[in-house]
Amino acid sequence: MSNVVRTRFAPSPTGYMHVGNLRTALYAYLLAKRNNGKFILRIEDTDQERYVEGAIDVIYNTLAETGLKYDEGPDIGGDYGPYIQSQRKHIYKEYAEKLIELGAAYYCFCDKERLEKLREEQTARGETHKYDKHCLHLSKEEIEEKLKSGVPYVIRQNIPTEGVTTFHDAIFGTISVNNNELDDNVLLKSDGLPTYNFANVIDDHLMHITHVIRGSEYLSSTPKYNLLYEAFGWEIPTYIHVPPVMKSANKKLSKREGDASYEDFIAKGFLKEAIINYIALLGWNPGGEREIYTLDELVQVFDIKGISKSPAIFDVQKLEWMNSEYIKKLPLEEFHQKALPYYSQIITRPDVNLMEISKLLQTRINKFSDITLDMLDFINELPEYTTDLYVHKKMKTNEENSLENLKAALPVLENLDNWTEEGLHDTLFGLIEKLGIKNGQMLWPVRVALSGKQSTPGGGIELAVILGKEESIRRIKKGIDLLENR
Question: Of 99, 112, 181, 438, which shows the fewest CB atoms inside 10 Å?
């Protein structure tokens, strides 16, 4: 086997990038790059019934977006292609026939009816469903006759009926399985395509994969893979079986139940850097308290010893917190560009200062889809509101002093030329000092008059900058009228 660490990500093109799949890809990438090795992309499309048109592009795009750059793959080539299993059909046939010669596999001509009857009989006896090796006992002449006659067949693995198969996993340790518990699974289907159980072994060997990272659900199948490696006399790779990503302690994440894929999270306004950072820590601990890592920093600290045996619980709130940390670190201009598509869905006023909204929101949202109509609707049009909004116990405001303070603020604001946050701040705080009132007794009425809401992202000064002088003055006058005519 190669001295260079070679890992692979081998997804099935079934339509979307599941969070667990992306984590497997990430760990394979990190392990390869940490060891100056090679990361390979292979498409496992032998299950044609599950194939979804366009799904391979989803895989390419997701890996490209997240920075998981592979060294070999279907679209960039490499020394061990083709990298799409359906294009390797001839290879699997050759190795399946070689296994027959070695006595480690055999032709099976059983039709569906016989297999169904066998299952029913085993169910009636309370036995585990297993193939009964019926076709293993066919004579060479019978096999040749059936092949010549075109009888459909599969090729099955010939699992020993006695003994134990033991393998070592980097996370779960040494595992032993009695061979009599294993089924003679199909290696080559009647359409000539291999099953996953066969193709992954052949491909991993021929592509010189040194470390196999996959979900722990494959632990039970690994003894069968090892028997194939041993039959061929091939070196067995290092196994790293990662625990599943769960929705809760006893429920797996499921697309069918609306659990998000990578694309869904991007559509909800999460940043790709935050997604990668978060899923890296799902079931892996770099040690220490630190939680925020760039992809390059993850490469430097990744070690498979930090992978847990326990399932990882996907915590959306934790992802939101992490995403908010990434959002805060964005340059304001970049945040603004990412927010613009959301503003365009919400804000209809042409004279609004959108950059000021971005300044306000960057530290206040967890994800871009938090930018909602409900949050910003008052910018388009002042909603209908009642004067009881001016009453605020903590701010020490009531309808009377709110009216007085808005009346005092109006001429000062009308005469203000420097309509900026600094200009408004100096003007209003100068007025507060002159009137000898609490800050809130001025700022709260201004905020209510400008928004007609109790809760807004930012106070009266920020809202005045966003709305501009003309609209702000208009709304303050409306607030005064409302309070005078209550």
Answer: 112
The partner residues of 167 in beta bridges, in order of sequence, read 175
Q: What whole-number distance in Å separates Cα of residue 132 and Cα of residue 62?
A: 44
Q: What are the backbone angles phi and psi of residue 259, rounded to the nearest 5°?
A: -75, 140
Closest CA to 284 of 259, 252, 312: 312
Work out the pLDDT band at 253, boundaries 50, 70, 90: confident
The CA dihedral of 454, 457, 462, 463, to the nearest 10 degrees, is: -50
CA distance 35 to 41: 17
265 with 279: CB under 8 angstroms? no
Q: Are the C-beta atoms of 190 and 160 separated by less than 8 Å? A: no
Strand partners, 40: 8, 72
Q: Helix (H, G, I), strand (E, B), or coil: what is residue 312?
A: strand
Spot the catalytic one: 69, 89, 133, 255: 255
What tokens were used for 59?
Answer: 């895989």
Residue 2: pLDDT band by 50, 70, 90 thresholds? low
The dihedral built from the CA positions of residue 116, 118, 121 and 125, taken in this order, carries a sign that is negative
329 is catalytic: no
> 135 Cβ partners below 8 Å, 6+ apart?
106, 107, 108, 109, 110, 156
As a three-state string, the secondary structure of 71-104 is CEECCCECCCCCCEHHHHHHHHHHHHHHHHHHCC
